[in-house]
């Protein structure tokens, strides 16, 4: 993965990450996932971003350098993985929302549940992290040179196969067209509007 590419704004990087491969190596084994869904968050300019109000100990990794893994807990339940992008010092990240397991499916299913169907193993950001075994200990990992979690190029995705839409489950800036996914792919998570989101004017 070209580090210069990741230094671009999140909304530019997010669609280009589709098809890339996120790999996690643990004592249990290796799991690799081809990314099928992403969401861009633009830091202090984005009301839905963790960095909207500035740097804190929790979001410090978001401020760079690009290519690091930002891991946070969602609703106190699930870990979520983000690829830090943009210019060092300016918060920006892409949430990896879903993917297709291409290596280590048996281990991913062991972590997710024996009855979970293949398309659902990494469907949704929390499930994706569970399948990969990503937790808080991976926060700040260098995805380009690290050994435990890495990001690499995969099969190119034609622009015609990429669908763009509003972000999932956030209450602020939920209508921003910053969600990118492979059209018709069964591993992509379902769209869900946050119950706290305000409907568009006139709706």
UniProtKB/TrEMBL annotation:
SUPFAM superfamilies: FMT C-terminal domain-like. One of its GO terms (molecular function) is hydrolase activity, acting on glycosyl bonds. InterPro entries: Formyl_transferase-like_C_sf, MPG, MPG_sf. It is an enzyme of class 3 (hydrolase). Its EC number is 3.2.2.-. Pfam families: Pur_DNA_glyco (PF02245). Keywords: DNA damage, DNA repair, Glycosidase, Hydrolase. It comes from the Bacteria. Belongs to the DNA glycosylase MPG family. This is Putative 3-methyladenine DNA glycosylase. It comes from Streptomyces polyrhachis.
